[in-house]
Amino acid sequence: MRIDLHTHSTASDGTDTPAELVRRASEAGLDVVALTDHDTTRGHAEATAALPAGLTLVTGAELSCRVDGVSMHMLAYLFDPEEPALLAERELVRDDRVPRAQGMVARLNELGVPVTWEQVRRIAGDGSVGRPHVATALVELGVVATVSDAFTQEWLADGGRAFVEKHETDPFEAIRLVKAAGGVTVFAHPGASKRGRTVPEATIAEMAAAGLDGIEVDHMDHDPDTRARLRGLARELGLLVTGSSDYHGSRKTCVLGEYTTDPEVYGEITRRATGAFPVPGTGGA
Q1: Pairwise CA distance, residues 220 & 247, whole Å
Q2: N or C terminus of the chain with fewer C-beta within 10 Å?
Q3: The predicted structure's pLDDT at residue 200
Q4: Lowest mean pLDDT: which of 22-26, 193-197, 267-271?
C-alpha cells in the first residue's frame, strides 16, 4: 500500500481542487490519501464525491498552533468535523487569516512592494487565505523566484520584515480538542528548521505525555540526519511515525507520494480514531 497522509487543495493553499487532488492521487498510484487543508474541512465533500475506485480518503485538517513563541502545525485525522468546540477553534483561526494577510500586504507596501489585497484575494480564490498566497503574489511581481524564496527573514518567515502574527491554537489544547472529537494528532514536519524556529524535543515529550499520537518524520523539509533523529525520538516517546508529501499542487515542488506512511502505522491511526472513518472510493463523479 502507498499512503500519503498530508495534502492540500484549493480549500486552503493548494492549487488543485479537492476533486482534482484525489484523481491525481489515484493516477500517482496511491492507495490512501489524506486531505489536510489548513484549519478547514471544506474540501472533504468534494473530494469524497470525486473519489476514484481503489483510492481511500482520510479526512483531516492541518491546525495552526503556537507554543512558547514558535509556530507549528498539527495534523488532525478522522475527527468529527461538527464537534462544537473544535469547530469553533478552527473558525477562530480561519477568521483571523484575512486581517493577518491584509497586514502583510500593508507591510510589503511599506517596503516598496506593490502587492495589493485584490491580487492576494484573487490568488486565494475560495481558499482560506494564508502566507503562501501572499508569497505567490511576490512571485507574480518578480520580487522572488519561488514561493519558498518568500519564506525568509527578508519577507514572510516568522519574524521576517513582512510577517504578521495570527491567532494560533496552543498545541496542548489542540490535542485535547482533537481527542474529544474522536481524532488522531500528528505533529507536522517538526524538524523543518528552514521554516524558522522549531519546537524543542522536551516540548514534544510533553505533548506525547498529553496524548500526541505521532510525528511526521519522512518529509521534504527533513534531511536524512533529521529523519534519523526524529525516528529515535519517536521510538523513545512511543509515538507513531508518518511520512507524507505535503502536496500543494504547483505551489510547491513536492509530488504526491514523495514520502509515504507505513501501512501498519496507518492501521493504528484508523484503530485509534472514533470521530470519522476512512472513505473507500467507489468510482467518483
Answers
A1: 10
A2: C
A3: 96
A4: 193-197
pTM: 0.87
| Helix segments in the chain, DSSP class H | 18-27, 44-49, 84-95, 97-110, 117-124, 131-140, 147-150, 171-180, 201-209, 224-237, 263-272
The Cα–Cα gap between 199 and 253 comes to 25
Cell of 98: 484575512
Q: Are 38 and 12 in contact (CB under 8 A)?
A: yes
Residues 6+ apart with CB under 8 A from 242: 5, 6, 75, 186, 214, 215, 216, 217, 218, 261, 265, 269
Whether the per-residue pLDDT at 282 is higher than 80: the answer is: no
pLDDT mean over 158-171: 92
The per-residue pLDDT for 283 is 67
Q: For residue 21, give the nearest of 1, 4, 40, 38 by alpha carbon.
A: 4
Contact 230, 191 (CB under 8 A): yes
Length of the chain counted residue by residue: 285
Grid coordinates belonging to 19: 476533486
- Mean predicted lDDT score pLDDT of the chain: 95
